[in-house]
Automatic annotation (TrEMBL):
Domain M23ase beta-sheet core: 188-283
PANTHER family, per the entry: M23 FAMILY METALLOPEPTIDASE, PEPTIDASE-RELATED
Superkingdom to which the source organism belongs: Bacteria
Protein name listed in UniProt: M23 family metallopeptidase
Gene Ontology MF term list: metalloendopeptidase activity
Keywords: Signal
Record's signal peptide: 1-24
UniProt source species: Cognatilysobacter lacus
The keyword Secreted belongs to this UniProt entry's keyword annotation: no
Length: 294
């Protein structure tokens, strides 16, 4: 439990950090512990600010009901809860907490903006950039299947575990950067790309339940989604191999697949994305820097 509290504190500090450029690596130093003390006397703990693309962990008295961006959020047995800040969130967002006694507290979570560089990616097969109608319909259906599993509100608490890297390598693409494929503007990048050789084992960054596994999606190729609880999930794309099945419980560090270049990819890499329900968040803000020894 001590390690989980420490990790919760780190997430809260990262969320409250000042401007963090998209290419920056969160610092492992100077991490105070704003969530280390128990909630008492009806107190609510929540960082004053959160960065675009961050997860924010707070705590409310046991039995409270938390509402954020139109969603009622489940709390852990000890009152902790997690929020996800969208890439394009601005200003401040209200967090409404209905306490067990009936009173309501509303706290404003200030949003810290980030810079989003533009990435130009050439050499992508044209049919994956501007697909014909039949392929576009297939892509839409496949994306709907993936989106559905991200809406699960599983009571698991694996999201409180300190995350580890699923694979080690050069970061070749960063969350949130605006992408331009073959000269045509695309959507902002939804995760982090890690360059590695085809066949490199991919490890679960935290425990969870596999909610989606398909080796042949049109854009993302071999795709696996791992639910870490309370709306937090990881997705692993372009896999050359999938080693876990839907419904399977996997533990942190367990091999769940292998790096590949399936789907829309110009070379072998792992795309690691994270979500809070349907809100995409930045894995780099959750996992921290790679070990210098790797």
């Amino acid at each position: 439990m001590t390690s989980k509290l420490a990790f919760a504190a780190r997430i809260a500090v990262l969320a409250a950090a000042a401007l963090l450029p998209a290419c920056a690596v969160p610092s492992p130093h100077s991490r105070p512990s704003p969530l280390a003390s128990a909630v008492a006397d009806g107190a609510v703990e929540l960082p004053a600010a959160g960065t675009q693309g961050a997860l924010v962990i707070g705590r409310a008295p046991v039995g409270s009901r938390v509402e954020f961006t139109g969603r009622t959020i489940s709390c852990a047995p000890d009152g902790r809860f997690v929020l996800g800040i969208a890439r394009d969130a601005t200003g401040s967002l209200p967090v409404r907490i209905r306490l067990p006694g009936g009173a309501t507290r509303v706290l404003e979570l200030a949003i810290t903006p980030r810079d989003w560089p533009v990435e130009h990616i050439d050499g992508v097969p044209p049919a994956t950039v501007n697909p014909p109608p039949a392929i576009a319909a297939r892509i839409e259906a496949e994306q709907a299947r993936v989106a559905a599993v991200r809406l699960r509100d599983d009571p698991g608490l694996d999201f409180l575990t300190p995350f580890t890297w699923p694979v080690h390598g050069r970061i070749s693409g960063r969350f949130g950067n605006q992408r331009v494929y073959n000269g045509s503007a695309g959507a902002p990048h939804s995760g982090m790309d890690i360059a590695a050789a085809t066949g490199t084992p991919v490890h679960a960054p935290a425990g969870g339940v596999v909610t989606f596994a398909d080796p042949g999606l049109y854009l993302t190729g071999g795709t696996l989604v791992l639910d870490h609880g309370h709306g937090v999930s990881s997705n692993f794309l372009h896999l050359s191999r999938i080693d876990a099945r839907v419904g399977q419980r996997v533990e942190q560090g367990e091999v769940i697949g292998a790096v590949g270049a399936t789907g829309r990819a110009t070379g072998p890499h792992l795309h690691w994305g994270m979500n809070w329900f349907d809100v995409r968040v930045d894995p780099l803000l959750v996992v921290g820097p790679q070990s210098p020894s790797r």
